[in-house]
Amino acid sequence: MVFFGKIGSRLLRWFLIVALIPLIFMGYQGYYFAKQAVTQEVFLHMETVATRQMKQINQWFAERVSDLEVLAAHPFVVRNCVLLSKDEDASLVHELAEILRSYKGSSAAYEGLCIHDMNGRPLAHAERCGLPAPGFGRTEMFKRALLSDGPVKGPIHAHESFGPVMNWAVLIRSPAGEPVAIIAVLLALSNTLNPIILDTTGLGLTGQAYLVDTAKVMLTPSRFMEHPAPLTHKMDTEGIRRALTGVNGAAVYRGFDGQQVMGAWLFSPEQNWALIAEMDAREAFAPLTRLRRNALIVAILVLGVILIVVALISRSISLPIRQLADASLDVSKGNLERAVVVRLHDELGELAERFNQMVHSMKESRDSLQDAYEKLVRTQKQLIQSEKLAAIGEFVASIVHEIRNPLSAVKMNLRILETKCSTDGSVGEHFQLATSQTERLEKMMTSLLDYAKPIALNRKPLRLEELMDGVLRETQAQRKAFRVEVKLHDSSRMIQVDSEKIHQVLLNVLLNALQASNPGDKIILKTEDTDWDDVPACLISVKDEGHGIAPENMKKLFEPFFTTHKQGTGLGLPNSKKIVEAHGGTMRIRSRVGEGTEVDIIIPMET
């Protein structure tokens, strides 16, 4: 601190406070929001990879189904099987075997093709196929094929020669529709399904995808050599447990090796499998590591610049003041020939000039030296203090001005980037995400204001039929995939309510029912007369067949900000209940998981 002097030391402390505190705060905020953005981006990326691979798997299954359906309907196959069901003929068997070998050679997926008669005996098969299996006629797959109009498949299992395999079967019918034979197929996954899963495009150096069944058994191989072989072990991670619930999603959790991974999962109800895509969290958050390192470098550079600036400012202020102090000391000892040379065109330079004039006047009038000296000391102290404050104030004002300009430029350029950047690709997705989140915040604030302010009702007579028609018109687009049934006990019934607010309540309840239901489900809107606190009332009921509400969530439904929807604000039901209670009524909710939910809106009738 000797190098800076006392003034420089004070300046250094203030500069560090003014610069480092905002720098630390902004760095923390930047890192926090950057981590959130990277997390969301990685989740979106992992979900995209999982979706792409699931589509490829479904396409692979669709191709196999199409192949088997074409083979089962092949005219020569049907004709020969019909003839063989009546009389054995070696030439017909040979022709069937040639057709099977042709199909086997058309795809690397087929390791075995065999045609069995209705007693389960093999009629013809492709060579080196691992089929026919003994006792096929007694297997569950043989029985399922007899009862199915299309191909049936079995689970993935290990084969001693081909590794993971699947068995398929399809029924062959005569032109008259009579079953005449069954085709049994052995599919090797090593050359077909496994390459789809082992495609690591978009998964980096540490990512992988794999399939697990409902027993948590890993069905496909891992890209890592140290991982156990498929169909030999179970996997029990948070991602697999959540995937097997049937709800798709993404999260950060510990993988099979105990390391943190970022994973996304998709559940296939048709196959009863779950597809898991994972990536090491350290690789996913690598940009944050670089961001933290760069932030540290910037902080060190800023600290270095502050030290240099403070040193220069301290010397530019303290050196002239020290020269004046030294000159004053000499003058106080009687050296009236001393002059101060300060080449500054500011207050310090002016002070030095006046000091020299003062010394010159002192030489002309020694009689007034004592009074002038005392006056000089007082004036000097005042000037030094005022000049210090003026210089510091001017400097701080200058720094604030210099900081404000680049900040304004940054804000202006951010707005320009938002209007000028292309809305295609990932940039467009980011702008769209920002816009949607802004709209969500606006919606949340509107709901919050509605919840906070008192309700003023404008009661007017309203027909129930008119209320239902208005809500159904407004939800026409959302309810296309559902069966909505309206049951009015009296379509001409009039109720005294605030039509706009009751419309809002019924609309919110109906939208909740639509969101909780699956396409094709039935939703019933009905009205009936009832009593509420010994007063005649109108009951409006909305009943769905959706997934229902968990018992632990029932008591939280009317709590502000509680929601189970990703885009919900958690204020819909609290606002609705507040409106109904303002009418003197109440709301009741009954629900069972897996069976649906029924919401009753009870409004007293005005006499």
Structural account:
With 607 residues, the chain is of the alpha+beta class. Among the domains are: 73-188, Beta-Lactamase (2-Layer Sandwich); 334-420; 460-604, Histidine kinase-like ATPase, C-terminal domain (Heat Shock Protein 90, 2-Layer Sandwich). 51% of the residues lie in helices and 19% in strands. The protein has 15 helices and 17 strands. The strands form 4 sheets. Strands 1, 2, 3, 4, 5 and 6 form a 6-stranded antiparallel sheet that branches. A 5-stranded mixed sheet has the order 12-14-15-17-16. A hairpin with a 4-residue loop joins strand 9 and strand 10. The longest helix is centred in the N-terminal third of the chain and has 68 residues, at 5-72. The radius of gyration is 41 Å and the shape is flat.
